[in-house]
Structure formats: structure tokens, C-alpha cells
Structure prediction request, 116 residues.
Amino acid sequence: QVQLVESGGGLVQAGGSLRLSCAASGPPFTIFEMAWYRRAPGKEREAVASIAWNGGITNYADAVRGRSAISRDNAKNTIYLQMNNLKPEDTAIYYCKLRGIYGAYWGQGTQVTVSS
Prediction:
């Protein structure tokens, strides 16, 4: 069973930075892509950033492009999301998603709160 554990969330002032981590564990399997999503209060879940496991091609939502960087550590089956110049509208629960040969898996989420 694949498990994803996110960490790194917290409370930060506007303009600050956070680094989220997501570690995948379980039986050996092929990963195609990992990604970060978020759900803000009263809103639908939205994609934030994704990274291909082979090649490392990245994609970003317009809302975070230029302020965030997604990266991966293949050996640790871990991805990171460095978020800079955080804004109150970045407040949300951030979820990690893994898409692999056996399907898609989600983490439990980590709360990010940005105060103005």
C-alpha cells in the first residue's frame, strides 16, 4: 500500500517562505508523476505544481508561478515545494498526489496559513 506523508506546513506572515515535503513509501513501484494540490476554505481543490518522475519536467499554476519551485529526490521518493513571497490567498490545505503504475494516491494534507 502506497502512503504519502506531507510535512512543512504552518503559520507564516505574508512575504514569508515555507518548504513543504511529501514522502512516498510502500512496495517498490513505478512513479510517473508527483504533484501538489491545495484546497482553500470554500473553494475547490486546485493543482499547484507537478513534476515528472523521469526527466523532471515541471508545471505550475499561474497563481504560484515565479514564487514557487517543485523538486524531487528520486532516491527518497520525495518531492518538495518551496514557496516564497507567500500571500494570504495561499492559505489552504496542501495535498500531495502520486500518479504511478498502480493508480493515483493522495496524502492527508498539511495546513498552510498566511497572515496579512
